[in-house]
């Protein structure tokens, strides 16, 4: 048996094609580096502009509405009080509607805070639970699209 030895005609063309592709990649990389180095454009400036545009869109119409301070005495706790201040994050188009429904919102928040077991305040993670429950009540009253966030600005047990 004899084996055919010898270079196939395709290997020379394959090496030539690989060499041309490598040269094109190196040429494009050199042109990109040179244009950046000479100051024609800056990748960091492009990313910063995109980040700036995105942050302006995200914060363009945000309004924070503060609710009056909620203060409740804890039953059977020897005169301890819970003090809670809340702000609602919303869009400017929903601010008037939230102002109109503020009494209903304050009533729901007062009812929730008054219904918390006094022993629960001594447990770890109570602030996250309170925030989640207040957010749920706010969204039930005001609607999902009106409430972007709920911030607890003051939480005291004294």
Write the layout of secondary structure elements.
Layout: H1 9-37, H2 43-59, E1 62-66, E2 70-73, E3 81-91, H3 95-100, H4 102-115, H5 126-142, E4 149-157
Helix pairs in contact: 4-5
What does this structure look like?
The protein is α+β, with helices and mostly antiparallel strands and 158 residues long. It has helices spanning 9-37, 43-59, 95-100, 102-115, 126-142; strands at residues 62-66, 70-73, 81-91, 149-157. Strands 1, 2, 3 and 4 form a 4-stranded antiparallel sheet that branches. The model has no long low-confidence stretch (mean pLDDT 85).
Instruction: Give the helices and strands as they follow along the chain.
Output: HHEEEHHHE
The level of helicity is 40-55%
> What assembly state would you assign to the polypeptide chains in this entry?
single chain
Q: How confident is the prediction overall: mean pLDDT?
A: 85
**What radius of gyration results from the CA coordinates?**
32 Å
SS-derived structural category: alpha+beta
SS field, number of helical segments: 5
Give the beta-strand count. 4
Low-confidence stretches: none
Distance from first to last alpha carbon: 98 Å
Report the sheet-strand fraction. Answer: 15-25%
> What composes the largest sheet?
4 strands, antiparallel
What form results from the Cα inertia axes?
elongated
How would you summarize what this structure contains?
This protein has 158 residues and is of the alpha+beta class. 53% of the residues lie in helices and 18% in strands.
């Amino acid at each position: 048996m004899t084996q055919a030895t010898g270079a196939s005609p395709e290997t020379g063309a394959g090496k030539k094609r690989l060499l041309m592709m490598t040269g094109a990649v190196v040429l494009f990389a050199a042109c990109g580096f040179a244009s950046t180095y000479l100051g024609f454009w800056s990748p960091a400036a492009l990313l910063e502009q995109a980040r700036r545009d995105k942050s302006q869109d995200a914060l363009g119409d945000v309004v924070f509405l503060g609710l009056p301070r909620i203060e409740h005495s804890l039953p059977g706790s020897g005169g301890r009080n819970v003090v809670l201040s809340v702000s609602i994050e919303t869009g400017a188009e929903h601010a008037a509607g939230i102002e109109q429904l503020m009494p209903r919102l304050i009533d729901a928040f007062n009812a929730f805070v008054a219904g918390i077991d006094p022993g629960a305040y001594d447990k770890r993670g109570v602030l996250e639970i309170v925030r989640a429950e207040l957010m749920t009540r706010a969204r039930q009253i005001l609607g999902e699209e009106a409430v972007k966030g709920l911030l607890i600005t003051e939480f005291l047990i004294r």
